[in-house]
Amino acid sequence: MTNSSSLRSRWQYRVDYRWVVEFLESHGIVGRMKFVIGGGGAMMLLNSTLMAISPAGVHGALGTAVNLLSAALGGLWALRWWLGPWPRESESLAWIAVLNVVISVDSMLVRDRVVGALGIVMLVATGAYVAVFHRLRVLVLCVGWSLLSILVLSATMVFGNGRWQGDGALGIAVVVANLAVIGVVLPTMQLSHWLLRMDALSDPLTRLLNRRGLDSYWSEYAETGGCRTEYAITLDLDRFKTVNDTFGHPFGDEVLKRTADRLRSAADSEALIARTGGEEFVVVSCVRDDPAAVVAERLRRAIETMPGLPMTITVSVGVALFTAPRAGEQPTRHHVLRASDDAMYRAKRLGGNTVVIAEMGETTRERVARVGLRSA
Fold first, then answer.
1. Which of 10, 258, 298, 324 suits 100 as a labelling partner, its CA being 20 to 30 A distant?
2. Domains detected in the chain
3. Which pTM was predicted?
C-alpha cells in the first residue's frame, strides 16, 4: 500500500464507535475504562479548583464564572461516566466539543499566561479519548483547536500587558512545548491505535478482513451503503484437506492467498471480503448492476480458473439475499451469514463447484434454495 493510499484509507476510515464499546464489553473492561475516562473529569475539576485558589490563577468576574463552569463540567463528566451507561456517539462528540471550548477559554483567562498554557495541556486528555473512540477527522479538529488555542494564548502573553509582554522567545517556547505534546503525541497515538486495530481486524495470510473485521465494517456498510437489497456470499474451497495432504501446507497457504486475490478482482469494487475460517470466505455487497446470482457465479468461475496450479481448485458457494426497507426489519448479520452458510453446505452436498441461493424475505426468515448450474 502506498503512503498516499494509506493516508486516504486512514482519513476515510470511520471508527465503529459501537464496535469499540462492544469489544471492551467482550473483554470485561468497560467498568475500568469508564473509571479511567471519568477520572479525566475529576482531574479537570481539581485543576479548576486549584486555579481558583492560586494567585496566578483566574481573576475577574468572567474568569471566575468560566472557571466555575469548567469545574462543574469536569464534575458532571466524572459522574456521567462513573454512574451512567456508556454514552451514544452523538453525546460523546457533544461532550468533547463543549469541554474543549471551556478548557481553552478557562486557560486564556488565567492571570499568568504561562500557567494558562499548562491548562491547555488538559486538551490532551480529550484528544486521547478522541484518538481511541472517534475517527481521524474528529482528531484533526481537536488538534487544530488545541494548536489554535495555544497560539492565541501565546500571542496575548507576548503582545499583552502582563509580566511576559515582549518575551517572544518564551511565547515560541510555549507553542513548541504544546506542539510536541498535542501535535505529535496525539496523532502518533491515533496512528498506533489505527494500525493495531487494522491488524486485529485482518487475516495475516490473505490480508482480507477476518470475522471480527467483517462484523466491524458491516455495521458501517449497512448505514452508508445506500442500497435496498444486499447479499452475503459464503464460499468454501472444495476438498481443501486433500490439497494440503497432497501438496503440503505451504501450497495450501498459496492457494488461499491466490483465492483472496481472485475474489478481490472478481467481486464488486465496494464489496466487503473476509476470510472467516480456514478455507471459508465471505463477500458482502449491495445488489447493483448484476444480480447476486451473477456475482456468485463470477466468483465461482474466478476460483475454478486460477492459473498456474497443478490442480483445479473449486468452491461451493451459498448466497443470502436480504432486504430492509424499514428500521427493525433487517435480519441480523448472524441470520444472514447462517442463511448463506446453510446454502453453501447444500452446495457441498450437491458435489461442490455449485452455487445455491437462499432468498430471505423482508419480514420472514424462511429460506428457499435454488441450485445454480454446475460447471462441466
1. 10
2. 3-200 (no CATH), 211-371 (3.30.70.270)
3. 0.68
